[in-house]
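Data card: per-record layout.
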Amino acid sequence: MSNEEKILAILEEHSKMFEKMQADISGLKAGQSAMQDDITGIKLRLELDVEKRFDAVNEGIDAILAQLTPKRRVDELESDVIVLKTAVKMLTQEVAELKKAQ
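The structure for this 102-residue chain is written out next.
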């Protein structure tokens, strides 16, 4: 076998290897494309799920806030309680004094 024939044999071998590598690369690209489609689908599902959950949490917070008494009203009630406690103390003292006077 001459050097030229050996070189041609090596080139044919390399050509076959490159064809196989090209086929492998094409397969990898197809697999990558399918994975990208799957990732896109998963991303969309996650976004929808997270959005639904946030909406549900926000609705729950709104319901809780609707049931809470405003701080201004609580402050007013505290003032009323202080007035009532003072009045009860005064009336208790007056009753005690009246009992002593009898």
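Known properties of this structure: The mean pLDDT is 93. The two ends are 142 Å apart (CA to CA).

See the next section for split statistics.
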